[in-house]
Specification:
This protein is mostly helical. The protein has one domain. The chain starts with 7 loop residues before the first helix and ends with a helix.
Length: 65
């Protein structure tokens, strides 16, 4: 049985791919931070809906501060 929507993991990989052109113009320091933001989203994929991934990133950043 096929799925009509991709899993959150697949959807987040697709979204990350859409941001690659933006990532490529960042300097090394900012690129590292940008990559960390997406890793936080992947960390929270199992317990969030796609629309909540941005909130998950923000919460993770707040924990680091």
């Amino acid at each position: 049985m096929g799925r009509t929507i991709p899993s959150f993991r697949i959807a987040s990989e697709i979204e990350e791919g859409k941001w690659r052109p933006f990532r490529s113009v960042l300097d090394k320091k900012d690129r590292k931070m940008f990559d960390e933001m997406f890793s936080y989203a992947r960390l929270h994929n199992p317990d969030c809906m796609l629309s909540c991934c941005l909130m998950s990133i923000c919460c993770q950043i707040q924990k680091l501060w």
